[in-house]
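Sample intake sheet
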Amino acid sequence: MQQVVLRWRWVFISGLTLVLIMSLMPINGTGWFPGQDKLIHVITFAALFLIGSQAFPRPKLCWQLFLGLLAYGALIEWLQGKTGYRSMEAWDVAADMSGLVIGSLIVIFFRTKKVLIDS
């Protein structure tokens, strides 16, 4: 069990690092469709929450994970504003929060389902 958690933690830290690097790279163009940027934020932060919930499986850590990832998203936006070639947008943090809510609902659903199956 501990080996599995350690692997998930490695995946989680790698994901955080990859998101930070990709978020601070210069971008070209506006994307394939309107709102693509926000959809990417939602999917990315839902995935980070799902991975993080496996890396830190204790249910009491869910809110800490949620708030930590939300702060991480805000930090990324602040750093983007400092680059000179990216912009800081409050709507991106709102999209991050939406992804975190979706991720947490998925975790709650599956943890509840597991409790029902185990009992």
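Comment: The mean pLDDT is 91. The chain has one domain: 2-118.
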